[in-house]
Design a protein that fits this description.
The protein is mainly β and 201 residues long. Helices cover 11% and strands 40% of the residues. The chain is globular.
Length: 201
């Protein structure tokens, strides 16, 4: 029986794609502590792997940053706004790499309230040959949702284990093999902001 080849889906960087499934723990920070946002740990090693600083830290509405364990900036996440969004049925968000120059790597579209009608949050990944589109299925506000690729396959799943049910500021994210964990956390940051979470001012 041959070894199964894991297809990597790098969005931010290949270094955040694991050959095995990874379970991340997300602990939110209240605005009184560090200006909001959340800290992400690898639940197996208990090591901090990512941090998300909300607009309470940056002092700019509709903007967040994703950093790695050493607080090196990975993504600038911001709402696009402007005339294009004003004429659209969606609120549009972009994730930009900040290593050298700002480069758009993914977009997320949230239906405006008056046009929602249970439409899912959808997004697209720039210049990825394996997965160009994705969508959110479920209810992030209840911490029960999945990120699906263009083929309808689950690439990441948000949930709350029995050990976490007593606290609302801690939940987990299961990231499938080969999927860019930094990208997944970036999407989670936008969902948190949309649903008035800890990243919001």
């Amino acid at each position: 029986m041959g070894t199964k080849i894991i297809k990597e889906m790098p969005v931010v960087s290949k270094m955040f794609c694991s050959s095995t499934q990874v379970v991340l723990g997300v602990r939110t920070r209240p605005h009184a502590v560090g200006g909001g946002g959340f800290v992400v740990t690898n639940l197996q090693s208990q090591a901090i792997v990512f941090r998300v600083d909300g607009c309470g830290v940056l002092g700019k509405k509709d903007q967040m940053t994703l950093t790695d364990a050493y607080q090196t900036p990975l993504l600038l996440i911001r709402r696009k706004g402007g005339v294009v969004e004003a004429l659209s049925l969606y609120k549009q968000w972009g994730g930009y790499t900040v290593v050298e120059s700002q480069k758009l790597v993914f977009t997320l579209k949230d239906p405006k309230t008056c046009f929602a009608n249970n439409q899912p949050v959808r997004g697209s990944i720039e210049q990825n040959i394996y997965c160009n589109n994705f969508q959110i299925k479920g209810y992030f506000q209840d911490k029960e949702c999945s990120i699906l690729d263009s083929g309808g396959n689950v690439i990441a799943q948000v949930g709350v284990s029995k050990e976490m049910t007593e606290t609302k500021d801690l939940y987990h994210v299961v990231v499938k093999p080969g999927i860019d964990q930094a990208f997944v956390v970036g999407v989670i940051a936008i969902l948190d902001y949309i649903h008035n979470g800890s990243t919001r001012c």
